């Protein structure tokens, strides 16, 4: 995609940062140019400037990465850090008992964004990653966040494309609508094989001081009937996190 | 501090990001202007642009924060994420057994930068934070990283200011030099009361595929003699992380 002509430096910088991903955290300048549609000379000059300010850094082999200084600035004042801090003791507890994957996610645009994930070696397959995204309709976290999300968002998602990842994915508006009502009624989402046949997600809402749902706490475990016993563990942990989030809000600490 | 006259947009953007901290993750535009030395009008225009690109976001009460989109871009391709992923199972294990604080840190400039921290409720006092820094000479992680760091860095730190946080802090060049030799010889740092009278740090090196020290794994526990028993736990975990980092490097996965 060619950039617009009089594009601002910040817009170009944003596109350069977007060129990196978890699969490709290191890129050459020509790869950056190709991905952003910038001329190599422009990309090279901008990479130089961004490196000078610590936004990017260069390996010995001249490959470019996100800079540790930028990571530091963003993470230390991160909007996610206080929520994550509140959740971690509970997530660790669930992880000790359940194993596999324990995750914390928030609504971001029309997708789920994962803030944190604890995984055991040899855990069941799971597509989530820290700072990774999944669609709202297919994942247990997404269903919890959508069920408690704005009505306008619900309508947009119901009217949009509902990809079926497996035969079990809720991929019709009628089924998704019924499922969202069920998630609200029962207080959690239980999703056998929605994203992958072998995996089952269970998610429960984390609420802020005013009772609104601010996040979803979830586990991904093998897709079998024994998973039902894990539901109360997830619900209890999510309530515990909500309690801490409320208390920090009351103390005046930023909680989101 | 007044900015230089023909300062670039990126340089100003960097100073705006630097204005946020873990203590103050949300600022008004006039606070940003005050902290960066920019005119309010300039700060306001830049905050607008940075918000449009997702670098910053605004609360309902108009306070400005680091943007979730920027967090996502930086964390998903973070230079720290693969090291953190390798370390987390071991850190969780140590945290289950030892409690208090378990941390992962790297050398950044002339300081320790903490990538990850697990903390128990009611743990002993600890000044480290995720994406926070400590001086090299006073913390157990810093001593491990400095002991195995470049000779030039060692000389600069030995010639620089060595702040004494407590009577126990190694605050003279002679004592620090002896301590660094000891850390190298014994394979870990044992630091009773160096940063705070009540706390004791124990750190061990994490090595990359080529044997160089890439990080320090540490615990902060109460400052009493029972801490000595924790040394083998920390050393074993740090060796485990090194093994995983080596293996991922051999498989071609980015390991730093």
TrEMBL record, chains A, B:
Gene3D superfamilies: 3.30.450.40, Winged helix-like DNA-binding domain superfamily/Winged helix DNA-binding domain. Keywords: DNA-binding, Transcription, Transcription regulation. Residues 69-247 form the IclR-ED domain. InterPro entries: GAF-like_dom_sf, HTH_MetabolicPath_Reg, Tscrpt_reg_IclR_C, Tscrpt_reg_IclR_N, WH-like_DNA-bd_sf, WH_DNA-bd_sf. This is IclR family transcriptional regulator. SMART domains: HTH_ICLR. Residues 7-68 form the HTH iclR-type domain. Pfam families: HTH_IclR, IclR_C.
């Amino acid at each position: 995609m060619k950039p617009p002509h009089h594009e601002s430096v910040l817009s170009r910088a944003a596109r350069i940062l977007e060129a990196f991903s978890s699969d490709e955290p290191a890129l050459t300048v020509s790869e950056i140019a190709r991905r952003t549609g910038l001329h190599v000379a422009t990309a090279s000059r901008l990479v130089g400037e961004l490196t000078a300010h610590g936004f990017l850094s260069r390996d010995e082999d001249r490959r470019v990465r996100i800079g540790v200084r930028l990571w530091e600035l963003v993470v230390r004042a991160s909007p996610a850090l206080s929520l994550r801090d509140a959740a971690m003791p509970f997530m660790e507890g669930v992880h000790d008992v359940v194993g596999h994957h324990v995750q914390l996610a928030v609504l971001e645009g029309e997708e789920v964004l994962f803030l944190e994930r604890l995984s055991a070696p040899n855990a069941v397959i799971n597509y989530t990653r820290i700072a990774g995204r999944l669609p709202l309709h297919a994942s247990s976290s997404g269903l919890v966040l959508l069920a408690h999300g704005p009505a306008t968002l619900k309508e947009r998602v119901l009217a949009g494309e509902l990809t079926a990842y497996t035969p079990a994915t809720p991929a019709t508006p009628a089924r998704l609508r019924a499922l969202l009502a069920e998630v609200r009624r029962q207080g959690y989402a239980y999703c056998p094989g929605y994203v992958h046949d072998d995996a089952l997600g269970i998610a429960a809402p984390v609420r802020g001081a005013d009772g609104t749902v601010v996040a979803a706490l979830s586990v991904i475990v093998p897709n079998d009937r024994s998973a039902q016993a894990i539901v109360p563990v997830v619900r209890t942990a999510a309530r515990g996190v909500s309690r801490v989030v409320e208390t920090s809000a009351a103390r005046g600490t930023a909680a989101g």
